[in-house]
Design brief:
Blueprint: E1 2-8, H1 12-23, E2 29-32, E3 41-42, E4 47-48, E5 53-55, E6 66-70, E7 76-79, E8 85-87, H2 91-95, H3 97-121, H4 126-131, H5 134-141, H6 144-151, H7 154-169, H8 178-185, E9 192-196, H9 199-206, E10 210-212, E11 215-221, E12 224-229, E13 234-242, H10 246-252, E14 261-274, E15 283-286, E16 292-297, E17 303-307, E18 319-337, E19 345-347, E20 350-352, H11 361-380
Parallel strand pairs: 1-2, 1-13, 2-10, 7-15, 13-20
Antiparallel strand pairs: 3-4, 5-9, 6-9, 7-8, 11-12, 12-13, 14-17, 14-18, 15-16, 16-17, 19-20
Helix pairs in contact: 1-11, 3-7, 6-8, 7-8
The structure holds flavin-adenine dinucleotide.
Flavin-adenine dinucleotide is lined by residues 8-14, 31-34, 37-39, 50-53, 214-215, 243-245, 248, 265, 267, 330, 333-334, 354-355, 359-361, 364.
Length: 381
């Protein structure tokens, strides 16, 4: 079967690419293992076992999901350790006010630069878009800890910012890049919401253009590409968008390039009674010393608990009693360590999308839009 374009992978990048091609009237086929990818929403439990929130300025990712409950930043408790914790608005935050002001000034500048960067990323590869703005380029290569020191908000970072960033990624300030940290921490400045993902709605939007297939091999064929799947089917296309996780893309294309290393996250949905100091808060966030990353109460009173270790016994640290209702482990949750870069334009007709160069649903959706725009432009010539 021949298509003008085949998109491999149906996560945020692949779905976004598909919807953008569809809006432009382009013919395509999507081959994917699981629609949604790291958006793993359980209809039955009404919880997210993968990506957990979207920000109100996620203009690209918002097409894929439905915004639900607002996460109230005033109902978050920040835990230094078992004995020391403080709420968003407290005497402690008043004490930290001068440094928090410094953080919010840095965030203001970040959001301004990042918004312009996003506009460029629709039509430029991320590398070029970064080069066009030395501020963003510097953050991609800088450790968060160094950025924090440079901007002089170490104490506010220790008490608040680093914990929020850790809740989003499971990574400490010495390892995450300043770009990823500030990208996550936009959530301390713009409204954030839990979301649901309606797989059937996306499937019906894509219609016959999406198939459940696992691609095993890609090779050059005439002027295009030939793809072989685990089921033994063969597909050919003039263009291929590889919207697979970077480690899969690397394998499929037999690339000899360094990748950023990934973090691990384990997600538990539990019916639980939390220990007193964790109860009654919409969210508890922790420092990197804790293997529990965050707890969040769901609308039905159950909890979602993220941890960076898969040992279930960890739940005893925050729960008096619990019953596990669901659990998903992510061995390769996000590409967060280091500043290796993956090219998006691989060769004529072969494009790479995904979250390798920037984590989260929004940058990923944007990388899908970029790939779609490259194809659309090709046929406008
Ligand atoms: C636990 C967790 C929490 C997170 N929380 C947030 C959050 O709150 N907010 C946020 O913005 N981001 C969050 N993220 C990050 C975000 O989920 C990812 O950055 C984003 O979803 C990546 O999208 P993607 O399309 O690049 O990759 P994926 O979503 O991984 O999609 C890749 C797709 O490729 C398919 N595939 C793989 N191999 C093949 C193959 N051989 N053939 C065919 N198809 C294949 C997969 O099935 C999948 O559909 C979180 C991630 C995790 C794991």
């Amino acid at each position: 079967m021949h298509s003008r374009t085949i998109i491999v992978g149906g996560g945020s990048a692949g779905m976004s690419c598909a919807l953008h091609l569809k809006e432009s009237g382009q013919e395509f086929l999507m081959l994917t293992d699981i629609l949604g990818g790291r958006i793993r929403y359980s209809e039955e439990e009404k919880v997210n076992f993968g990506a957990y929130f979207v920000m109100s300025n996620y203009h690209f990712a918002k097409k894929l999901v439905t915004r639900r409950t607002w996460i109230n930043p005033f109902s978050v408790t920040f835990h230094n350790n078992d004995k020391e914790w403080f709420n968003t608005i407290s005497l402690h935050s008043v004490m930290r006010l001068p440094q928090l002001v410094k953080f919010y000034i840095a965030l203001y500048f970040f959001i301004r630069h990042y918004s312009r960067y996003k506009i460029r990323c629709q039509t430029m590869p991320q590398r070029q878009a970064m080069a066009a703005d030395p501020y963003i380029d510097k953050l991609f290569h800088q450790r968060a800890a160094d950025f924090i020191r440079e901007k002089g908000f170490e104490k506010a970072a220790h008490d608040y910012v680093s914990k929020f960033s850790y809740a989003c990624t499971g990574v400490d300030m010495n390892n995450i890049t300043a770009l990823d940290m500030m990208n996550c921490c936009m959530g301390l400045g713009v409204p954030i919401h839990r979301f649901s993902f309606d797989r059937q709605a996306i499937e019906s939007k894509l219609g016959y253009r999406a198939r459940q297939e696992s691609v095993e091999k890609i090779q050059r064929f005439n002027n295009g590409y030939l793809l072989e799947t685990a089921s033994g089917a063969q597909y050919s296309a003039d263009n291929v968008v590889l919207a697979t996780p970077a480690f899969v893309t690397k394998k499929l294309l037999n690339l000899d390039i360094p990748l950023r290393q990934t973090c691990q996250l384990y997600v538990y949905h539990v019916e639980a009674v939390l220990k007193e100091k964790y109860a009654d808060r919409q969210m508890n966030v922790f420092s990197f010393e804790s293997e529990i990353v965050f707890t969040a109460i769901m609308d039905d009173g159950s909890y979602l608990i993220y941890a960076r270790d898969q040992n279930e016994k960890l739940l005893d640290k925050v729960c008096s009693h619990y019953k596990i209702l669901g659990k998903v482990g992510w061995d390769k949750a996000m590409y967060v360590y280091g500043d290796a870069y993956m090219e998006q334009d691989f060769e004529d007709g072969l494009y790479i999308a995904g979250d390798h160069n920037g984590l989260g649903l929004e940058p990923t959706a944007l990388s899908g839009v970029y790939a779609a725009n490259r194809i659309i432009k090709k046929y406008q010539r």
